[in-house]
Design a protein that fits this description.
Order of helices and strands: EHEEEHEEHEHEHHEHH
Oligomer: single chain
Structural class: alpha/beta
Bound molecules: guanosine-5'-monophosphate
Mean pLDDT: 93
Number of helices: 8
Largest sheet: 5 strands, parallel
Radius of gyration: 17 Å
Strand order of the largest sheet: 2-7-1-8-9
Distance between the termini: 15 Å
Length: about 200
C-alpha cells in the first residue's frame, strides 16, 4: 500500500490556522491531524488529547530524552513538539498527515524528511492579524505583543516555503490547500509505480 505524505502548515499566531484546518479535516477521513504535545496551559474550550496533549515541562523533557519527537521548539515561553509515533502510524496506513507547527520545527522536519511539503498561511494584512490576536481575548497584552513580534519574524521566512496561502476567507484557504495536496499527489514520483 502507498504511504501518505506529510504537509506542514505554518503561519503566525492568530492567522486562523485552526479554523482552516478544522474545515479541511471535516470532510476527509484520509487525512490525519498530528496532535502536538505542549507545556502551554489550555485555552478555554481546548480539550486534552483533541487540540493538544497538555503536559508539564518534566514530561516534555522526558519525551525529548526518549527521542519521541519528530521535532520540537520553544514558542513564546512554552514548548511544543510533534510525537513521532502517530505520524508514522498514520502514514503507514496511507493517510496524509498535517503538522500545524511553527517555522523552527518546520526546519527540523525538512532536515529529517526532505519530501515534506511546506505551506505557509498568511493573513490578508498586518492589521487583520493584529485585530484577530487582540480580539481573541485569550492572551494577556504582553503575550499578544510577543506573538506579534514573533509573527513579523515568521512572515519573513514565508518565501522559504513551497506554497503561500492567504487566509482572506476560510473557504478560499481550504480550497487552495486541497488543491496543493491534490497536485502534490500528481507528481511523477508519486505515480510512476503504475508503470513498473
Ligand atoms: P498556540 O499556542 O497558538 O496554539 O500555538 C503557537 C504556535 O506553536 C503556532 O504557530 C503553532 O503552529 C505552533 N505549534 C503547535 N504545535 C507545535 C509543534 O508540535 N511543534 C512546533 N514546532 N510548533 C507547534
Amino acid at each position: 500500500m502507498k504511504t501518505g505524505k506529510t504537509f506542514i502548515i505554518s503561519g503566525p499566531s492568530g492567522v486562523g490556522k485552526s479554523t482552516v484546518l478544522r474545515e479541511l479535516l471535516r470532510d476527509r477521513d484520509d487525512l490525519y491531524f498530528s496532535i502536538s504535545a505542549t507545556t502551554r496551559t489550555p485555552r478555554e474550550g481546548e480539550i486534552d488529547g483533541v487540540h493538544y496533549h497538555f503536559i508539564n515541562v518534566d514530561q516534555f523533557r522526558e519525551m525529548i530524552q526518549e527521542d519521541e519527537f519528530l521535532e520540537y521548539a520553544e514558542y513564546v515561553g512554552n514548548f511544543y513538539g510533534t510525537p513521532k509515533r502517530y505520524v508514522d502510524e498514520a502514514m503507514a496506513q496511507g493517510k496524509d498527515v498535517i503538522l500545524d507547527i511553527e517555522v523552527q520545527g518546520a526546519l527540523q522536519v525538512i532536515g529529517k524528511r526532505p519530501d515534506t511539503v511546506r505551506i505557509f498561511i498568511a493573513p490578508p494584512s498586518w492589521d487583520a492579524l493584529e485585530q484577530r490576536l487582540t480580539g481573541r481575548g485569550t492572551d494577556s497584552p504582553e503575550k499578544i505583543q510577543k506573538r506579534l513580534v514573533r509573527a513579523k519574524v515568521e512572515l519573513q521566512t514565508a518565501d522559504t516555503y513551497d506554497y503561500f496561502v492567504i487566509n482572506d476567507t476560510v473557504e478560499n484557504a481550504v480550497r487552495e490547500i486541497n488543491a496543493i495536496m491534490l497536485a502534490e499527489h500528481c507528481r511523477p514520483s508519486e505515480r510512476m509505480e503504475i508503470l513498473q
